[in-house]
Amino acid sequence: MLSLTLKEAVHKLRDGSITAKDLCEKCIERLNKTQQLNAFITETVDVSRDSAAETDKRRRKSKPMRWRKLEGLPIAVKDNFCTTGIRTSCATTMLQNYIPPYTATVVQRLQDEGAYLIGKTNMDEFAMGSGSVDGIHGPVRNPWKYKFTSSNLENQQTKPIEQVSMRNYHTSTDDWHIAGGSSGGSAAAVASGVCFGALGSDTGGSTRNPAAYCGVVGFKPTYGMLSRHGLVPLVNSMDVPALFSKTVDDASILFNVMAGHDVHDSTTVTDEFNHFTLPDNMNIKDLHIGIPKEYHAPGLSKDVHNAWEEAADMFEKAGAKVTQVSLPHTQYSILCYIVLNCCEVASNMARYDGIEFGHRAANEDSTEELYAATRHEGFNDVVRGRILAGNYFLLRQNYEKYFAKAMQVRRLISEDFKKVYASGVDILLTPTTLTTAPTYKWFTERDNRTSSEEQDIFTQPVNMAGVPAISVPSKLSTDGLPIGLQFIGQNFKDKELLTIAKWYEQQVQFKQLNLDYLDNVS
Amino acid sequence: MAASMQKISSHICQLCKRRYLTFSYKRSSSNSKSKPWKSVVGLEIHAQINTESKLFSGAENKFGGPTNTQVSLFDAAFPGTLPVLNKGCVEAGVLTALALRCTVNKVSKFDRKHYFYADLPAGYQITQQRQPLAVKGHVDYCISDKNSFETKTANITQIQLEQDSGKSLHDEKDRISLIDLNRCGTGLMEIVTEPDFSDGTDASAFVKELQKILQTIQTCDCKMEEGSLRVDANISVHKSGEPLGIRTEVKNLNSIKSVSKAISFENETRSFDNEIDETVPMRDKEVKTDYRFMPEPNLPPLHLFDSESVKTVSSKMSVINIDDIQQKLPPLPEDTRKRLEQQYSLKRRDVAVLVDNSGLVDYFEDVMRLSPTTSAKLVSNFIINQLLGVLNDRKLTIYKCPVKTEDFGKLIDLLHTEEISYSTSCKVLDEMFEHPNIAPEDIVDQKDWRQISDTQVLTNICEKVLEEHPKLISKYRKGKLKYLHTLVNKAVIDSNNKANPRILKQIMEDLLDNK
């Protein structure tokens, strides 16, 4: 049942061939069996059971009723989307026990269509990271090639919200692979079959990166298509609510439920959103695919390179025009991204002072000391480092040198994309990451900044330009880990992007991870 | 001294009108001792926008609500909340800009200004540092005292929209700080002037005019005592002919009087203490605060349109058309002054008094409308010199004046046609306040106050007085003209104070000269 796609699950729930309760129990069971992945910070199994029961009750009612688009479907939400009455920690001490009084628009829209929350997923603290290893709840483990130890599977009971906190995640001696990040928990949750779709956020690649590493679809829509209201911000001008799913069709279904103007977010597009479904057949002959030469970066693994080449060949063979293109300012993107990221982080983190909400230190000798102690205790080194750097970049004497300059280069990067598309290219094809998921051991030997630079190399220019992009699983590497390829589309042509991604997905027939064997472990 | 200092410091704490200060210091050269020191004053005025809700949130926007009851999640900076610009605030800003004859920027932008303060929950204030709503305006205002009357022009540098902060209350004794976020996020218009004012009187005259303008267009209620209009003054002292010297900032001036007083007393950045009427140094540690300005990423640039450019807008979203707002601009105080001067041939000084007192112009014009033949000059004089006084004595505003304009006109008619004397008219006015339902002519009749203007009656009275005082006649005729006055007075008394003094005097004079 858990191998179904979201689309299939929705159908079966609707026609009554499965009940919401059965589906819910299956998902909770899988959730329990995969505890070691540490994908969830907060599990909401009680909420899930109530919602599923509600769905089944709706079905039993004799009166005809509107069967909502996602009726009875469990979804996971990254722990930086606010959820009324459910802890939203952003994996930081600062918000460790923060229970928001409101729900993020995108979550609300999913719930309004009948989906329910199975849990809040693990991440890097305040989404600052690319491995999902830098949160207070410990690292997320990639379910691919993960050796579940049966002793840990026994007697797993679902825990009420309050009791879920730090898990014993340092026990495994085997060196496992990271899930990628910062939305690693959501990626792992979908990959391991706990839910049919999940929300992540994507500021520099935080959804596409873990999607590639975990062998699922990761879709970052055009900036402004999905409301950021209720998403705890990292970099406001780049943050986009993004989604994980098993298939491109599933991504499209979730996107259509969430997209459109939100009065609470002035940066969402005001034009009316036209709902769409993706065609099953697509004529690839009129398509012009661009291969940006700058993405042949040092460190690109042979496996990923091969997968990229094969994909290009596949399009060419099907009749598409495939040409090499240039995005000349790509090389400057990562540095500018870091500057802008730090500046907005410094600004956005200023509100965490322990006065209105969140962690408050015991030191109340003076307001200043209270601030200092609260912020020292509440933020990890990565967050504090970025705040320091950001404030430095924003100083009056530095503003022109760093922030203004980075904004100028950002415009050039954006122009790069526009020019390529203006020249007739429909879509760009690139790798999502340099390699497959690295091991935790390898990854943690590097500092957060170095790994962010490496991990975000192919993904962050997209956020600088605001264009939509999707990571689609391509194949397994020689050592059996998933490889993701990235399609980069044009602003507000999300449908076109998804359509092409779907065509590619149909061709490669990537085999999802199947953890059904866990069901038989007692 | 110690006691007084302590009082000062706690007073400052209770004010705590947010804001760290920046100011630049320039040393002035101190030669040319002969020349007198001159001060140059520029103002920064924060006017709270008179809208139902706040600048970026839907929270209610009223003065004096119970503590922390008008706070949205955005106002308290809850994570994930975003600013949504209140269209009403923008319209109020544009209307104000037009009233101050500013150029409204078709595109303006919002910035974040960072500083840590407990009543600023986000750690930054959203303001318009780089591209304000409007620039380059001017305001004509009147300065008057007993001896002079003058019209001057002040130049407006810019108007920007920004958020107000909350309020902190520091309890020094228990060492706790209390925060009220009701005010946090209220829309402010920061109005910055050029350094055009020469002294406190000058600056306060401008602030008064600005108050009247904002009250006329209803974009701010301008209650300085409630903090809805707050004035900061930048003062430079220099010797005439030399560059401007040390710039000093005086903050928190919350009445017209304190504006005037404070500017006459300052040296470095000061907080003005109302209780001791002196300025005291404020937060000098903050001199080097760097606000680390940054564009506000959650608000797209604010686009404004005119009737031409609005045609190109396809979006269904509501747009703001500057030309439409221009149409809504009511006559401003200066417009009214000019019109009254021309229409009624009144003196500018009198007109200024009418315009200065809210409601007086309407009252005046209503009187003139009901009695078009009445002398406008007489009406305005009587309003300014008598009616205002009675109202003040009775602690009434013109809006609560029991005397109907129709009756007031009749009273002026009685005075104008010399049915009653000027002194009687004052007594009648008092009666009219007591008995607003009795018409003035009825009061005059009941009290038998009607003036005697009949020349025959008056001649008889005069002749009788002259008969009784032959010595005074001879003294007068010997050239002691002051005895005319004595004789007239006696005649007035004989008439029971009812004689028309003008005619009586004429008759008396004629009788004396002709006999």
String of helices and strands of chain A: HHEHEHEHHEHEEHEHEHHHHEHHHEEHH
From the helix content, strand content and strand pairing of chain B, which structural class follows? alpha+beta
| Biggest sheet: strand arrangement of chain A | 1-3-2-4-6-5-10-11-9-7-8
Assembly status: heterodimer
SSE class of chain A: alpha/beta
Radius of gyration of chain A: 22 Å
Rounded to the nearest angstrom, the distance between the terminal CA atoms of chain B is 79 Å
Number of strands of chain B: 16
Binned strand content of chain B: 15-25%
How would a textbook summarize the main sheet of chain A? 11 strands, mixed
Which spans of chain B of ≥5 residues are poorly predicted at pLDDT below 50?
1-32
Report the major sheet of chain B.
Answer: 9 strands, mixed
Low-confidence stretches of chain A: 153-171
Question: Based on DSSP secondary structure assignment, what is the total number of beta strands of chain A?
Answer: 11
Q: Provide a count of the helices of chain A.
A: 18
Description:
The complex is a heterodimer of chains A (522) and B (515). With 522 residues, chain A is α/β, with parallel strands linked by helices. Chain A is built from 18 helices and 11 strands. Chain A has an 11-stranded mixed β-sheet, sandwiched between helices. In chain A, β7 (288-292), α9 and β8 form a beta-alpha-beta unit. The longest helix of chain A has 23 residues, at 400-422. Chain A starts with 5 loop residues before the first helix and ends with a helix. In chain A, 57% of the residues are buried. Chain B is an alpha+beta fold. A 9-stranded mixed β-sheet of chain B has the order 2-6-7-10-1-11-12-13-14, with helices on both faces. A 3-stranded antiparallel β-sheet of chain B has the order 5-4-15, with no helix packed on it. Chain B has a two-stranded antiparallel ribbon with strand order 3-16. In chain B, α4 links the parallel β12 and β13. In chain B, α3 (200-217) runs antiparallel to α4, α8 packs across α10 (405-416) and α13 crosses α15 (482-494). Chain A: GO terms for molecular function: ATP binding; glutaminyl-tRNA synthase (glutamine-hydrolyzing) activity. Chain A: One of its GO terms (cellular component) is glutamyl-tRNA(Gln) amidotransferase complex. Chain A: Residues 23-149, 175-498 form the Amidase domain.
